[in-house]
Amino acid sequence: METYTARSCELTKYYHNFCALDKVSISIKRGEIYGLVGDNGAGKTTFLKLLSGQIFPTAGELSLFGKHTQKDLQSARSRIGVLIEEAGFYPTLTVEQNLEYYRLQKGIPGKQPLEEALEMTGLSEFRKKSCRELSFGMKQRLGLAVALLGVPEFLLLDEPINGLDPSGILEMRNLLLKLNREKNITILLSSHILSELEQIATIFGFLQRGKLLEEISAEALYKKCADYVEIQVSDAQVYAVLLEQKFGHTHYQILPEGKIHILQADRPTEAYSALAVDAHLAVHSLMRCHQSLEEYYMNLKNGGTKTC
Ligand SMILES: Nc1ncnc2c1ncn2[C@@H]1O[C@H](COP(=O)(O)OP(=O)(O)OP(=O)(O)O)[C@@H](O)[C@H]1O
């Protein structure tokens, strides 16, 4: 079996003269839940559409289940379920009838796939409900059921959590975790809010204006965010030089009023005050804090961890 469900190498997409995706290299391992994070217009949908074959790249390479050629990619796409943009449903038809419509459209034989999709998304008891009676969250679930027809090995979901209320978000998260764990489905999902993916993604890719800023495992991300030390000294610039020269720390932020955030601060807190005192700098305050994932993401977007 292939290690990678999907890989892109320097994948690039231009819409006329506009570069929507710029040499993006992403690797999605089998069994992973990959969270693609980026602001509006970052290129998330473009990336998902390239994977699903709805559009074609301007340059770069793409492989799915280890297949590269156009012909092989096309057949590999039958193993993918896609939810990109809101699926269109006939309001007067029932949940079951809408699913049946998509089953026929996708050319999936037999009734069993429809039953499985209903069961996996918890929609069986609502099968006779007409679509116009469904809540937004239920419609999202139905969209997911369409993507699940034929039990795909890989799910591509564009902002599946967007617009859901807190209980809808929880429901969708649990459903995706269940599909990943019980059916071993690899999932790529996008969001412009990192915290929405926080509890489920095993790896994150951060996109900004078509470029991949960073690809990082959830474990490494949480480690990076774990702790930082905030110190306020009489001369932050001098202290920053000491941090680099004596401790080899390059991950820090210089803030106004002589404050410095030392990220990945792996030494005892006292070591950071001693560093200042030994250089005859006054220490006005010192504390160990926790960085949220959103803060980390904001820093990344603002060009790294060193800011003045
Ligand atoms: N068909 C198109 N023609 C021209 N420009 C396009 C087209 N589709 C997307 N774009 C542009 O490409 C950029 C990336 O769009 P894309 O939809 O991939 O971003 P996104 O990260 O999914 O954003 P959102 O979160 O708003 O959906 C945007 O600036 C968008 O305006």
Describe the structure.
The protein contains 11 helices and 13 strands. The chain has 308 residues and is an alpha/beta fold. The chain has 2 domains: 4-222, Rossmann fold (3-Layer(aba) Sandwich); 228-289, Alpha-Beta Plaits (2-Layer Sandwich), CATH 3.30.70. The strands form 3 sheets. It has a 6-stranded mixed sheet with strand order 5-6-7-3-8-9, with helices on both faces. Helix 4 packs across helix 5 (136-148). The longest helix has 17 residues, at 166-182. Adenosine-5'-triphosphate binds at residues 15, 18, 20, 38, 40-46, 192. This is ABC transporter, ATP-binding protein.
Uncertain runs are none
Gross geometry: elongated
The CATH class of the largest domain turns out to be Alpha Beta
Could you tell me how far the N terminus lies from the C terminus, measured between alpha carbons in angstroms?
A: 48 Å
Whole-number mean pLDDT: 90
Strand order across the biggest sheet?
5-6-7-3-8-9
Q: What is the H-and-E element order?
A: EEEHEHEHHHEHEHEEHEHEEHEH
Q: Count the strands?
A: 13
What's the architecture of the largest domain in CATH terms?
3-Layer(aba) Sandwich
CATH fold name of the largest domain, please? Rossmann fold
Largest sheet: 6 strands, mixed
Overall SS class: alpha/beta
Number of domains: 2
The CATH superfamily of the largest domain appears as: P-loop containing nucleotide triphosphate hydrolases
Binned, the helix content reads: 25-40%
InterPro entries: AAA+_ATPase, ABC_transporter-like_ATP-bd, ABC_transporter-like_CS, P-loop_NTPase
Family: Belongs to the ABC transporter superfamily.
GO molecular function, one term: ATP hydrolysis activity
Protein name: ABC transporter, ATP-binding protein
